[in-house]
Amino acid sequence: MPASDFLALGGLSCFPENLVLVGNILRAGSLSLVEGIIRSLGGTMKTVLIADDDPITVKKITDSLAPRDYDVFSARDGEECLKMAREHDLDIIFLDVIMPVMDGLEALRELRKTSDVPVVIMSAYGNVEKVEEARQLGIECFLSKPFDSEILVDLLDVMFP
């Protein structure tokens, strides 16, 4: 895959055909005053699923999103991820590649049979073949572990302004 096919920023690789950045929205830091007012006047809480067998990663993401009014669920493996996806109206899934029971790519293949929910793949192993397979299945981004949780928050701010 040519380097021009994706946008990389601090461990986050996004594919332009799946994610459009408008202006200077992707930034470090907290919500702007205008965004805060819009959310308080009628913004809806977004539902996030974190599918990862590492409790430290799940806690890191949950702690980053909780103050920003995201409803966060977690799954420890691919099968549990699919179960949660059936039970909840999810706005986005953060999906680890390597998990027990069912890995993230197998879960993504199954998920795509019934859902087009946005998915961000996370992995400590940047295997090009796995990233390309996930990209063909329509992921929004690839997040390389370890990552700064502010990058994840900024990504959500862009996707759900």
Question: Notable features of this structure?
Answer:
161 residues, alpha/beta, 7-stranded mixed sheet
Question: What does this protein look like?
Answer:
It contains six helices and seven strands. The protein starts with 6 loop residues before the first strand and ends with a helix. The longest helix has 11 residues. Strands 1-2-7-6-5-3-4 form a seven-stranded mixed β-sheet, with helices on both faces. Helix 2 crosses helix 6 and helix 3 runs parallel beside helix 4. The protein has a single domain, classed as 3-Layer(aba) Sandwich (Rossmann fold). The N terminus is likely disordered. It is globular and about 35 Å long. Strand 5, helix 4 and strand 6 form a beta-alpha-beta unit. With 161 residues, the chain is of the alpha/beta class.
Question: Can I get a quick summary?
Answer:
The protein is α/β, with parallel strands linked by helices and 161 residues long.
What's the arrangement of secondary structure elements?
Elements: E1 7-9, E2 12-14, H1 33-40, E3 47-51, H2 55-65, E4 71-75, H3 78-87, E5 92-96, H4 104-111, E6 119-123, H5 128-136, E7 141-144, H6 149-159
Parallel strand pairs: 3-4, 3-5, 5-6, 6-7
Antiparallel strand pairs: 1-2, 2-7
Helix pairs in contact: 2-6, 3-4
Which strand-content bin applies to the residues? 15-25%
Count of distinct structural domains: 1
Q: Which sheet architecture does the biggest sheet show?
A: 7 strands, mixed
- How many H/I helical runs? 6
Helix content: 25-40%
**Quick one: CATH class?**
Alpha Beta
Order of helices and strands: EEHEHEHEHEHEH
Low-confidence stretches: 1-13, 15-42
* CATH superfamily label: Response regulator
Rg (C-alpha, Å): 15 Å
Average per-residue pLDDT, rounded, comes to 76
Could you please say which CATH topology applies here?
Answer: Rossmann fold
Structural class: alpha/beta
- Largest sheet strand order: 1-2-7-6-5-3-4
Q: Termini separation (Å)?
A: 30 Å
Could you give the count of β-strands? 7
Shape: globular
State the CATH architecture.
3-Layer(aba) Sandwich
